[in-house]
Structure prediction request, 406 residues.
Amino acid sequence: MASGSPKVAFAGLGAMGFGMASHLVKSGFAVTGFDVYQPALDRFVKEGEGASSAKTPREAVSDVDFLICMVATSVQATPLLFDPDTGAIGGMKENTTIIICSTVAPAYVDEVQKRLNYQGRLDIRLIDSPVSGGAGRAADGTLSIFASGEKAHLASARSILQSMSAKLYDIPGGLGGGSKAKLIHQIFAGIHIAMASEAMGLAALAGFDTRHSYESLRASDGSSWMFENRVPPMLEISHPPYSAIAIIAKDVGIITTTSRDFRFPLPLVSITEQLYLTSISAGWGKEDDCVTVRLYLPGNGNLVAQQAGASRTISTNVTLDTIRDLMIAVHTTAVSEAMSFCERLGIDTDLMFDIVSNAAGASNMFRKAFEPMKQGGWSLKAAPDAEGIRDRLSKAVADEFNRQLG
Prediction:
């Protein structure tokens, strides 16, 4: 444990939180962990000399300089901070800093600040600092972190934030800026996860060798980071999970709620939310989000895996080029929606390009279409080959419809 390092309380030892807290310990910070799940605490205290645990949030923060909040939702964060008997606020020493790393709505960050002011805790420093990257990068200290708040507060927390990140972005605009940037990123992530399921479900139903389809599509303009990351578990059923459907559904729900607050239409995101809610209603909420592919494969949810390395003869006009064009169209529409909303939220679009290009929201079309669509006011008409994609997909739909009519 490095001498002079600030003491940290860490609340929320889930898949990502555990890795983040453990990495801080390995980096020389003294970390007191808190989680409602006792086995997570028992495991955490074995992570090294600097790891300890507490029974309540208030106990965890009694002698620390920073509290990192990494619980799953704002519903969990509120009692963590403000419960009258066990909440952290009641036990914080003067000038403690709260770092909210959870993915929450920008409005919630404002609400936390207002409650701190109302309770007379003007001394407490608040940093809005959501993260992206998954459990593996959390454990390696290579997350992308979107930090916002007062400059002096950010400077005081820099050693902690840098320890957990490979990419640390200072998001201008004060509190809420970090959550707005994460929200825009998750528009891409949410749509791309669903598109990966739709593409592979369609490939399987068309009778294609799904492994060959994956390799072909991932080398095309239709590919995305999520496609490359989420399809392998569809091909190998035993592949370990990445992230539960309930998590991406929660994030997309934050996006649609915020868009309503701003009276800003996001039709593709809204459809995506319904896909995840349908998956949850089917009982899959705790499963990996790649199982959304089952929605496209009624009666045989494992068809993508069964056709990995095999194919069937199916009467259809669908080709791999059709699926590629569909992916390009959806990913380009995501650029239009996300970046238009980005401007509405007041986030610098060039900064957002850097964030998305280096994170899980990246896609080939985002990189290819960003500049011409920016010049065209984020209109789909400004996207490369927009009319060609439209015409080919329209013809593919018409041809398949006519084929089925006989």
Observations:
- The longest helix spans residues 177-205.
